[in-house]
Structures are given as C-alpha cells and as structure tokens.
Amino acid sequence: MTEQARRTVASYATYQEAERAVDHLADQGFPVQKVAIIGRDVRLVEQVIGRMGYGTAALHGASAGALPGVLIGWIFGLLNWLDPVVSGLLLALYGLIFGAVVGALLGVLLYAAQGGRRDFASVRSMEPSRYDVVADEDVADEAVRLVAGLESKSDANAESASSRGDGPRSDPAPS
Question: Which three-class secondary structure state does DSSP give residue 31?
Fold first, then answer.
C-alpha cells in the first residue's frame, strides 16, 4: 500500500478548532476519510502531582494490583460449575485483597530500589504546539476552499457580535 501525498489545508492553535474545521468539511459533504488532523511540534510535559513516599508508593501499587487481582479471581470463580456466582464473587474478593497486597509490596520494593532518585509522583502528557488539518492531494484544493468559507463565516460572526456590543470589551464595565 502506497501512502497518498497530503497537503496542509489549515493550521490551528487548538485541537477544538481543527476538529471544528473537519466537522465543517463533513457538513459540506466533503469526503472526510481523506482528511487527517496532525499535531505538530509535540513536547513532553510532566506535571508533578505530589511527593512520593513509602505510603504513597504502597497505595499506588495496591491500586494497580487490585484490578488484575479481581479479574483473575472472578475468572477462576466462573470456572466452578456447581455454584459460579457465589464462588466467582468470593474469589474476586480474595483476588482483590491478594492483588492489593502484592501490588503494595511491589510498589514499596520498587520505590526503595530507586534510592530516593525520584521522590515525586507525576503525570506525563504529549502536547502539540499546533494542529494541521491535512487532506489528500487530489481533494486538497476543495478542502482549502471549504475551510476558507468556514473562517470567513467565523470572521463575519465576530464582526457582527462586536457591532452589537457582544464582543470582547477593552474598557472596564460600569459599576
């Protein structure tokens, strides 16, 4: 399978704007299966959410181990042909407890093995600086025309809102 040549139709600062443009193309009957939204200039952002200690490591490990423990216990309980509901629930409970205990022990063990090098918890995310709407080369001109219609419509709505006084104000509101 050869990849189709693509061309950038429009570029936006937020994903919602790019999504709105593709939605507009779909509303106009454009073949949106020939369109993609591509995040450009991606950067890794790691947001620190708190300190990590032995208690927090145990709690994170317990929560990570509890779900697999419940699922494994429940599956083994369903294999009991005589009374699958009671044994399924009972083994799921045992699995929850066992998974939480093993997860907590592993969480504390892994935290101790790091030797204090990473004493914080964080959440990582990828954030693009802009979003490009691209279309296959054979339909790109039509996509550019339709997206330009959306942007001119947005500009007209912003102008009419500002002429009615609904737009953003630069002077302080009267009190």
Answer: coil
